[in-house]
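Good morning,

Both structures are done.
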Amino acid sequence: MTGYWLIFGLFMVLSLVVGAVLKSKFARYAKIPLGSTLSGKEVAERMLREHGVSGVQVVSVPGQLSDHYNPLTRTVNLSPDVYNGRNISAAAVAAHECGHAVQHATGYAWLNFRSKLVPVQNLSAKILNVIFIAMFLGVFAVMP
């Protein structure tokens, strides 16, 4: 049983570290304004236009760092800090997500592969959550 806790703990710590580093980098570069006055939304729209990508909408979605491109709805979904932001972080995240839209428009094979893996990843994450909870509760069931 110790091996399971070690693996669980390792992934938990690794997840927390990666999330903290990402948030820290975003916060650091969010303090640096762009040379232009463009918002993340405007950066995204300009990038799409300059790459000849049409039919993709740039929208604001709730959350923090919840940004993603949805090929099914053809939307670039930006969190409020990115959508409205006029800083390096907002521009970088908006450009990154638009990169996926450009890949989709050009038929980039690896994006199609990645898109097909998303449902598998979502399901496996839910299953792993159930397993981890069961492991946690199971420890209490076997303790004297």
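Second structure follows.
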Amino acid sequence: MSEASKPQLTLPPEQQAIRDKCFHPTGSFVEFKKQEIEQSIPKRFEKIVRAYPYRLAIETKTQSLTYEA
């Protein structure tokens, strides 16, 4: 379905603010696939760890850890 043919939703302002934060750095909204939504949180986390082992996972004032760490 093209963007032009998708129905436009009118959301309450607080929900629209949340949705506005869910845009990919390229500027496009990233919609999760059904099979991704139905995964458990630990399974999703494991998938992220495998896909992006060197990305920042946790940062404190004195330390930062990658997913691999």
